[in-house]
Amino acid sequence: MDLNGYVDHLRAGLTDAAAAGGATMVDAAERLATSLDAAVRMALLEALSDAAAEITAALDGPSVEVRLRGRDPDFVVTTPSADEPTDAAALAASAPSDGEGDEATARITLRLPEGLKQRAEAAATTARLSLNTWLVDAVRAAADGPPSPSPRAGRRGGKQLSGWVH
Which of 21, 35, 81, 85 has the most CB atoms within 10 Å of its CB? Predict the structure, then answer.
């Protein structure tokens, strides 16, 4: 999807509005539009990402993602394989219940190097989870810290005794 037409349309609207103020105002509007180019593109990308997330939430199964190719966004529709659960009840049943399911979800933007993203996608696929669920589980595990050592963790290998002593 080419964003240039949208950015150019916004630039033209800004300069047309400034035309009422004269040539100096038009010049200032053109300079302002040029400096806002990156911010406008980012706002459009965030709007597209939010739209893709809303569409995914409304669909039962397929997901819609926005991926960048250079400076241009591409929409990618992914459908789950036949053995993945697609309805919300099945997904809720498979989610761990640690009390966090009742909280509202927060949306963040995470930028990963492409190689790490591919490894995370492969790990999620192997675990038969969506990338989002896999990432949530990974963040939860990291936030909870290392597991507390079991009483047996301090034992050194070798022989093990069990029984009662009088």
Answer: 85
